[in-house]
Specification:
Blueprint lengths: L1 H19 L42 E2 L4 E12 L2 E11 L4 E6 L3 E5 L4 E5 L6 E7 L4 H8 L7 E9 L2 E9 L7 E10 L2 E10 L3 H12 L3 E2 L1
Antiparallel strand pairs: 1-5, 2-3, 3-4, 4-12, 5-6, 6-7, 7-11, 8-9, 9-10, 10-11
């Protein structure tokens, strides 16, 4: 009787173990409580990597102008550092309705979205810009440009630019030979202002600075 009871208990235990075993035979159930990230296939054409540099925004970058220079080259004698010099010029027609001569041996013209550029061929830190600002006055623009950092000095005055009266602002960012200098010439016209700016360095005031000044003095609004 005792042997029969033991045998029955053994059979019952074996049946119980078989009923609890998973079908996949791994000792784990077929479902997992841990969610896995889905595998997303990425098309090679649309793959971006962290190492990729962002594309530069070309909206306001100057681009070479087509047909900016008009007319034949001509010469004029200007005075630089107390000496006469013959300079080769060519008339430039800007995108803001103006004409201005350019020293063709030292500058190149580039037309941009916001401004036209007259860039020095010899020094990238020397250039001029010309733009037109709507709905403002020369006085307002001049006062706005007088707001300079502590390391700079600014002075405002009435100026004559060719046939036009306007405002001028001279800004010096230091007194060292390589200190940046910016000159603004502001001319009111039809409810807005033409802004001509000269950017150079102190040591170049009597060279590049004077050349840009002579170019500006023949500025004409069409």
């Amino acid at each position: 009787m005792r042997k029969t009871a033991i045998l029955l208990m053994t059979i019952m235990m074996m049946v119980g173990l078989m009923g609890c075993s998973p079908e996949n035979g791994t000792g784990l159930t077929g479902r997992s409580d841990v969610s896995e990230e889905p595998q997303v296939s990425v098309s090679p054409e649309n793959t971006d990597t962290a190492q990729d540099e962002p594309s530069p925004n070309p909206t306001y970058e100057p681009t070479p102008a087509a047909g900016g220079e008009i007319g034949e080259p001509y010469t004029e004698v200007i005075q630089l550092e107390g000496m006469d010099e013959t300079v080769n010029y060519k008339l430039v027609k800007g995108r803001f309705g103006y004409l201005m001569p350019m020293d063709i041996d030292r500058f190149e013209f580039q037309e941009g979205e916001e401004a036209d550029y007259f860039r020095s061929i010899a020094n990238e830190n020397v250039f001029m810009t010309v733009l037109y600002i709507n709905d403002t006055t020369a006085e307002a623009e001049a006062r706005a440009r007088m707001d300079v950092p502590r390391n700079a000095t600014a002075a405002m005055e009435d100026v004559t630019i060719g046939a036009y009266e306007g405002k001028g602002v001279h800004i010096a960012y230091g007194s060292e030979p390589d200190s940046k200098i910016v000159d603004f010439y502001l001319i009111e016209h039809e409810g807005g202002v033409y802004e001509i700016s000269h950017i150079y360095f102190l040591q170049a005031a009597e060279g590049f600075g004077a050349r840009m000044y002579f170019m500006t003095q023949d500025f004409k609004i069409e």
